[in-house]
Structure formats: structure tokens, C-alpha cells
């Protein structure tokens, strides 16, 4: 005769492991089921942290080695500070270089370009008043147009540069990608090539859109500020191997959305409604582009 096992007869470790897969709404429902489950969920730091993350619509930092109890305490303190608009501390950090219009904030680091466009300065944002607040720099031997970052996932910074080819008339410019390890400012150990030639163009400084998701890097070069307004160029690379997966052109003002294995662009034209005129979807091939 078949027998059934009551959920509460299972070891607590198994119940907690099962509950770890439940969304917030289901966990809250389980808490209301009976006193034993309520106590089990209440006393589990892992589940409390999971619930706090979902409530705050935040993501866990996979690079952090802090215990869950410390993460939970920090998250609750952060949420309380946001709700009261009351930061834990405020500091002023002098900018000792002449900044350019290139900047980004990601992975707990703030990057700010130099007006000479050969150097990117960055600092790790302090979490306490005792943390180091000194600027560091990344320097290349070409003119920087923009950069893309994937710090949490790959410790990767990709610098987009332009460089005039010698003895070419009319002038032609190499648009290139330089792949560096963000933490060390050295060639990225997983990248087959440190520098990738994207294209040679008569236009020196295109506007850039770049996203890095998993193994793929999507690059959009837009030339809307040039008189002839050539089509945007879209490139999809496998950044580790430098393999070009896709190379296409699109009408002016392309924007992108990049899930892990596909790419969607919105070629938009100026309008009062600011609505995209069409949507193009590009599944990423497993083979190189020809």
C-alpha cells in the first residue's frame, strides 16, 4: 500500500532547499500556512535574503564573498536609507583631470574620460569612510570614442577607439575594440586577441552603442551627425574568440536590446510620438559571419 509523506516530516534542510526555488509570493503563502513553516522561513537567513532581494528588485552580487547574514544586513540598511532619503555618509572626491564626455557607472566603479581621449580614469565607489578613494587609469595609444563594461560577469572593459591610417587620402580611420581585464588593466586572459579591427571608415568618430552579454558583444556604430548620414552598422562578436557572428547595416538611429542569444534593434525615425518604426530580430548564429 502506497504511503504519503507530509511536508513537515522532511528534514529542514530539504524543505529549505525546495523553498529556495519558490518566488516571493509563494514563500509568503507558505509562511501563512502554519506556524512551523513560518518559523522555518523566518529563521532562514538565505530565504530572508532571497525575499529581501525580490522585494527590493535587486540582484545578488556574485563576486561578493560576504556571508548571507552580512548581505542581508547591508540590503536592509540600504533599503531603509533609500526610503528615508538618508545616505549612510557623503564624500566629495576631487576630479584632478580635465574630463571628457565619456563616463559610466557600473559594478561599483565610476569611469570618467580624459579630454585628451587617450585615458579613462576610474575609482571604486567607497562603501565606508575608510575605503580608498584614489583615481586609477586605463591608457591606450589611440583616440577613445567610448567604452563598454561587463565587470560582474567577466571583469571586462572594452574600449572603442579610432585611429587614422597613415598615408591615406582621403583620410580613413580604423575603428577598433581593445579588450582589457578591468581589475588589472592588462590584456584579458580569456580574449584570444587584445585588439579587434571592426571596420575602416571615412568617418572618424561614430556614435557608439555597445552591450556585452555572456559570450557575445553587440556593437552599433551610428553616423547620424555626418552630412551624408550613412546607415548604422551592427556587429555581433564572440568576444573571447574574436569571431564575427553578424555584420549588417540598418537605417539611422538604431537602438538595441540584447538577451543572451539574440539581438533586437529598433530603427527609429524622428517623430512626435518617438515610437520606433519597426523592430528587427537577429538570432545569434553559432557560426562565424562571412
TrEMBL record:
- What SMART domains would the database entry show? FBOX (SM00256)
Q: Which PROSITE patterns match?
A: FBOX
Source domain of life is Eukaryota
- Gene3D superfamilies (UniProt xref): 1.20.1280.50
Identify the stretch(es) annotated as Disordered.
Answer: 248-290
The record places domain F-box at 4-52
- Kindly list any coiled-coil regions of this protein: none
InterPro entries found in the cross-reference section:
F-box-like_dom_sf, F-box_dom
Polar residues bias: start-end ranges: 248-271
Q: What is this protein called?
A: F-box domain-containing protein
Q: Which organism is it from?
A: Agrocybe chaxingu
